[in-house]
Amino acid sequence: MERNRNNEKLDKTILRTSANYLLPLLILFSIFLLIRGHYLPGGGFIGGLIASIAFVLHSFAYSPMQTLRMFSIKPFFLIPTGLLVSFLSGLLPVVLGRSFMTGVWFAESVVVIGAFGSALLFDLGVYMVVVGVVLTILFTISENT
Amino acid sequence: MLLPIIITFLLAFVMLLFKPQKMARFFKFISVIPLLLFLYLLSYLPAVHYGVKSVFFKNDWIPSLGISLDFKIDGLSMLFSLMITGIGTLIYLYAAEYLKKDENIHRFYCYLTLFMGAMLGVVLSDNLITLFVFWELTSISSYFLIGYNTNEEDSRKSALWALSLTGLGGFLMLASFSLIGMVSGTYSINELLTQPGILVNNEYYYIIISLLFAGAFTKSAQFPFHFWLPGAMKAPTPVSAYLHSATMVKAGIYLLARFSPILSGDEVWNYNLMIVGGITMLIGALLSIFHKDMKGLLAYTTISALGIIVFLLGIGTETAYYAACTFILVHALYKATLFLVTGIVDHETHTRDLSVLRGLGKVMPPVAIAAFIAALSSAGIPLTFGFLSKELFYGVTTGTIWTRESVFILTGIMLLTNVFLTSAGFLAGIRPFFGKLPQEFKKIHKPNVFLWLPPVVLSFLTLFFGVLPAIVDQTVINAATSAVFGKSTDMYLVLWHGFNMVLLLSIITIVLGTVLYFTIKPSNKNEGRLKGLDDFSPQTIITNIAVGIRLFAFKYTRFFHNGYLRIYILIIILFFTGIVGYKLFADVPLRVNTEGLSEFRIYEFIVFVITMIAIYIITNTTSRLTSIAALGVVGYSICLIFVFYGAPDLAMTQFAIDTLTVVLFVLVLFKLPPFLKFSNGKIQFRDGIISVSFGVLISLITLQALVSPADKSVSKFYADNAYVMAKGKNVVNVILVDYRGFDTMIETIVLSIAAIGVYSILKYKTQDGEKSE
To answer: Domains of chain B: which residue ranges?
Structure first.
């Protein structure tokens, strides 16, 4: 038994080491995809999926429990937060006297991002929902099987 | 008018705040609500009678759809709403005492008040859609009232019967209303009255009236839908008295009367009502005298009385309408009295068995007097209100408009019905109170004043109107008749017509009815005879149909919803292939143009080969892990094809999704039972054919799509305007977050719901102690 556990630890050394480095990198990459989405391939949905994959990789290297421990709040709460952010980004133009979900722009020709406005905020909401949904499903299944 | 009705509904929910047993004696004061409504409505009587004939209250609701909360008080509405609130006041008083010890009395009053508000809405609404809404509310509140004794299975069952039948009728009635709205362009009864010909001469006329009949006949318990009414007698007696004799069952009558000036004029209308009403009144009266349960007996006489009214409306002459309007009031007064008396008898002796009950007049004289007067009125003895209506019946059937044969038939049916009704009235109203008082009932003391006062008041009115008919005929009944007839009428209720045919018929009725009363002895044997008829009753037939439908639904569901994912997918693909394939070959000239397709490049060929190998492995491996990994390979290959053809967004998404799918599979993989080979050669062959034909179909559609000229205006618009309007260069993303941002938002909500679904299904199981295997 003891030997098995040691073996497992040994087996996963490479995976764990790489996961330690890949996790921040992948998350950075997902954020990069998120913000460049307006001009180039990317966006909130893909960004969210990539970020979830980063956590999935981590949970494979260690265990879902250990990945979960990295979150100070449950990933489940990302879902309502994301929905709220998306909704508020749509509400923003209403405050400014335009109709719901009209684009509002704060700055144009920003490096990488392109035009920066309410659309990015909306995408951020989508990103959070996707991460929340995927991780919730994943952790729930791994906890219960 | 809107305000009083809304307040009534609000007050209904205020009732729930009362503490049942502790505040039981305060429940009597709730009867102030119907009393105030009664007085309020009474204040419009002069206007309806002398002045404009109708008072209109305009309230917009959804003007764009022609739906309003308009109310109108005319003679007919006045007659019904005065009955609803007037008898309601007495019922409220009575029920407070009757249900004094009940622990749910506050709920009872809530339902009853809801019902009263809804009923007022039905008879006062001018808009058909609003009328329908109130109509359904009466069905629903009646459901709660019939099933009030929730711990009795019979009571729940009867409530469900009543709800399903009246609900079905209401549904068909809504269809009729929509057709009326479609044909005439208005839902307002007031406007329909100004253009009566428009519906009668329309091609949809017969559909409209048959659907309307369905609504009215189910509600007013006409044959063959009459059986729910005896069942509804499971309700507490005040409910039976109020809903199932005086008010709700008359809603169907109201509907027919309301539409008489609009829809009558065709023979089909008249004959249908006459035939259905005739059958109902005869069957109801005939069956009533075999019952020994007082409530059962009264239920069947009520069915019969409703049949009489429908019959009279079917005849459709001015006198017939006048007789109908008079009888509505006559019947409400005497039948409510008899029901309330039954309630008192049941309350004091704990039985309603007519073969046991005798001589109760000695212990409860006021109740006996009330019942006696009601029975006389139901028999049509002179100086009671019932006499006047019976004279009118015979006046109608012996009228001059009929041929000799019709006079015999109509008068014969009417005579027979009335003979039975007379003896049934005597059985319920006289028999229990005369004769020798049995030993066990000696100890009964006089019931509480709030129990006996309401029936006494009602029977006093029966007598009062019988002696001084001018008080009602000149005010309410005449106005109501005008509303039904469509023209102004001026008729009188006359006490003495002189010695003529009509009087003779009345005397024959009374004599024969009395003779029958002395011949019939309520006993189990008589009730047993009725049991034999049960096999042929409409109730049995409808029950059988319902059971059949449920059986079919069960088998149908078992067949399609069998729990095997592979069967679901098989059915979906087969259905899709069949229906799309048929359309493709039948309607589209199939042209496959291989020209202009780009060349097959070497790396595409490699991807193709990889995919084929992966598919081969999937179908032949015996290891789950291998097949899932191979599925992942197929997914990645498709990603590569997306990349080759310039869809990087799609490729990235597909890539991420594929990865996650494989991961999810791996997570549950270890929990699955060992790999089992379900399929044999035959099944594999079948699946092979299905999947190949599906693949061929999709390829054909794709090639066909290339040939057909595509409409590119939409994609061009997006491409042209993405930067100009939304300041984005990635069109796909601009569509997602801007053009169709609303869709995206709703899709994220769908995703969230899926996550919550997974979470709750898995968590629920573990909390329940049934850990998923």
So the answer is: 718-773
